[in-house]
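ENCODED BACKBONE
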Amino acid sequence: MAKIYATGKRKTAIAKVWLTPGSGEMVINGKSIDEWLGGHETLKMKVRLPLNATKQLDAVNITATTLGGGYSAQADALKHGITRALVRYEEGFRAILKPMGLLTRDSRVVERKKPGKRKARRSPQFSKR
């Protein structure tokens, strides 16, 4: 079977994911997941969640490139990309991943700054005198 490509997104981060049948190897930006995320065990668990749910942790190899945003948003984008790639790999996985909310793109992004405000909604400090 050929490579399966999917894109995951979160905030301004984008993850390009290639999934191939293999031994469970995960390479992100040319590094292993442990090298890429360092000591962030929670984020590593979050990235592996779709693979654990479908029991494909040792059955597929994942190669990914992430760009934009911070490491946390990149990890979420990677999770989204892996989920979409798994559904393309095996349509039956959709029934497992959809109820977990993993196929939904998290659309929350930073609100833009408005004129006359210090931030998006924060007003300048009021001075009576």
Notes: The longest strand covers residues 13-21. The mean pLDDT is 95.
